[in-house]
Design brief:
Number of helices: 17
Low-confidence stretches: 372-380
Distance between the termini: 70 Å
Structural class: alpha/beta
Strand content: 5-15%
Largest sheet: 8 strands, parallel
Mean pLDDT: 92
Shape: globular
Helix content: 40-55%
Oligomer: single chain
Radius of gyration: 22 Å
Number of strands: 8
Order of helices and strands: HEHEHHEHEHHHHEHEHEHEHHHHH
């Protein structure tokens, strides 16, 4: 049985976000929040040919993230077929095809959301990925599909480090899903979803905006509701995505549209704890309650511990030279801190985990001094 079917509904997952949901972010979110399912950042299928070691770096994951789904993108069915084998060999629980990215450098090359304009090619890609998974599960080797021996050895090493070796020995087929949008320059969600359903993906996740909208305007959850109706009876789950602010907002969207679950993206930035109350949400919906879910807010100590853990893990994986990419995460963590603006101004300049630790120590010392001064005034 697909792991998707084993998750208690509604599904509450972490949405893939380019440049954000890297291995460190996902590990921290899994540890502190525990979403039902986690996706990697999208990885180009072309990197299997011209940058295989970068591909393996981007497909790094930790066991705590399971179920973990590898998201890939591109426009070549042949490369999807090959990379599906690699994803299986690495031990992922699922494979997701990105047909929703609106970025120019992706869409102008015919990938991501541009595939909405090429439905026949989109179907060929889904079919190729599913065939790749099936053929791997039936015993086809990486060497048999022309994967270079050095890359095969690197994949084998990575699989053994990341839990994939056991999966490879079982040769179990993994589910293939699609993440997409409600249209290209106009809403065509019913026709588009029906087209994808011809290939019987396990899940279709829908962001409620068109490619032309990008991330502007409001997500159209009415269009997502129509997709749910179009998919009814197909066996494919429909997940909604876009502008979900918290779990109470998620509950409202689920009730209004009938989706099988939601993916949270921007709401989880700097807030891995947002998923902690998902069990309460499921219970409330199961019992028909409409009482707001009130998750416990992390303490300042928990927030700072997460910032340090995240920073150290990022530095370990990517090195000090890449640490600038960590700064946006640090800024997001600051949102609920007293004097957040001053703290954020310092954190967006740090260049290592050690500097993060020093910055937080200075901040806490300043809070102690301020508390002491307040106490002295009160006593005086």
């Amino acid at each position: 049985m697909s792991f998707w079917r084993a998750i208690e509904k509604p599904i509450v997952g972490l949405s893939p976000m380019d440049g954000i949901t890297d291995a460190s972010f996902r590990r921290v979110t899994a540890a502190l929040g525990g979403p039902d399912v986690i996706f990697t950042e999208f990885v180009s299928v072309e990197t299997a040919s011209f940058a295989p070691h970068a591909m393996l770096r981007d497909l790094d994951y930790s066991e705590i993230e399971r179920p973990i789904v590898a998201q890939i993108y591109g426009r070549s069915p042949e490369m999807f077929y090959k990379v599906a084998h690699i994803v299986c060999e690495l031990g992922f629980d699922g494979l997701d095809i990105n047909m929703g990215c609106p970025a120019k450098n992706v869409a102008q090359r015919g990938s991501g959301a541009a595939l909405i304009e090429k439905p026949d090619l989109a179907r060929s890609i889904v079919r190729a990925a599913i065939e790749g998974v099936r053929h791997w599960s039936e015993g086809q080797t990486l060497e048999a599909i022309g994967i270079d021996s050095d890359l095969v050895a690197a994949i084998d090493r990575a699989a053994r480090m990341r839990g994939g070796a056991a999966a490879a020995s079982r040769r179990r087929a993994i589910p293939v899903s699609v993440k997409t949008r409600i249209g290209y320059d106009r809403v065509v969600v019913e026709d588009w979803v029906r087209h994808l359903l011809e290939e019987r993906p396990a899940v279709i996740s829908l962001h409620g905006r068109t490619l032309k909208q990008g991330y502007s305007g409001e997500a159209d959850w009415g269009a997502i509701a129509r997709a749910v109706a179009a998919a009814r009876g197909s066996g494919t789950l429909i997940l909604g995505n876009g502008d979900v602010k918290d779990l109470n907002d998620a509950a409202r969207r689920i009730r209004e549209t009938g989706v099988d679950g939601v993916l949270l993206g921007r709401a989880a930035q700097g807030n891995p704890w947002i998923f902690r109350a998902k069990r309460e949400l499921k219970r409330a919906m199961r019992e028909g309650e409409r009482t707001p879910v009130v998750p416990a807010e992390p303490t300042l100590e928990e927030r700072f511990r997460a910032m340090l853990d995240h920073s150290r893990d990022f530095e370990r994986r990517r090195g000090v030279t890449a640490f600038a990419a960590m700064r946006k995460h640090l800024a997001w963590y600051c949102r609920s801190c007293p004097g957040a603006a001053r703290l954020r101004a310092r954190l967006v300049q740090v260049a290592s985990a050690a500097e993060v630790a020093a910055c937080l120590d200075d901040y806490l010392a300043g809070l102690d001094r301020a508390a002491g001064e307040t106490l002295a005034v009160a006593r005086g």
